[in-house]
Amino acid sequence: MKHFLDLEDINNIDTLISEAISLKSNPFSSKKLGENKTIGLLFFNSSLRTRLSTQKAAQNLGMDVITMNLNSDSWGLEFEDGSVMNAGTAEHIKEAAAVISQYVDIIALRAFPSLTDKVKDEEEQVIKSFQKYASVPVVNMESATAHPLQALTDAITITEFKQKKRPKVVLSWAPHPRALPHAVPNSFAKMMQMIDVDFCITHPEGYELNPKITGNAPIVYNQEEALKNADFVYAKNWSSYKDYGQIKCTDESWMLTLDKIKTAKFMHCLPVRRNVVVADEVLDSNQSIVIQQANNRTYAAQAVLKEILKNVA
Ligand code: CP
What we know:
By secondary structure, the chain is of the alpha/beta class. The chain has 13 helices and ten strands.
């Protein structure tokens, strides 16, 4: 693996899931691999899990870690080619990415979408520019349209908890007071089509995700119908893709409750708004596996970094 920008960078998903589960029981087995190597964790947006678990993963592999919040701690970055930089931005990505590449062996980056410019967001300008101008591998820690480390985590978690060969997995939209990106549901939907599960998506009409990503996954507009016989329920809010970035529905009845999920395991990428997205009774029950899921962020990141380190001189 050279870069980890999206799930297409995974050669063999079953092997990578097995590797992550194996690292979980023996996290320091490859400590020599990252010796004298440094990862730079660069954030344009807030994070709890991604920041700490990726740092932990890198340290488990023997790497040093440098972290920077780019928006608050660094110069404003310019991404447009040929721009006259006489306004807010002080440094061009061409210099920034080249310079950072001299300090670190891997760049990991978080850059959320604007949710106002669909075309620009789908171009993935920030992460693609880093890939273009950096001379070291780039890892996606959630970009405008994808959160592949989260999706790998989710696949690991389902593999660990499943009670049958081909469990039923439902991705359910849930209410939220703010307009949220599509990265997590996009990557989850893509991942569920890479592993052996019976997958469907439920959301109010008008919340269809990018059809190029959801592919042939069934969409069931009736949440109760979709949740029937579910083994795993994955709740997530996202804003409208069609009316890009808008909140079209605030229907509180889409909140996940125990009555709705029945005996299914409950998953969410976190952070989650209690009693808006999901009721306390679910998160506080033993059907919720969100804490175990978050723990797997470390081993997902570690499996990916290990693959990349094999190709770093
Ligand atoms: N799930 C996730 O990416 O969490 P953070 O935003 O806290 O990193």
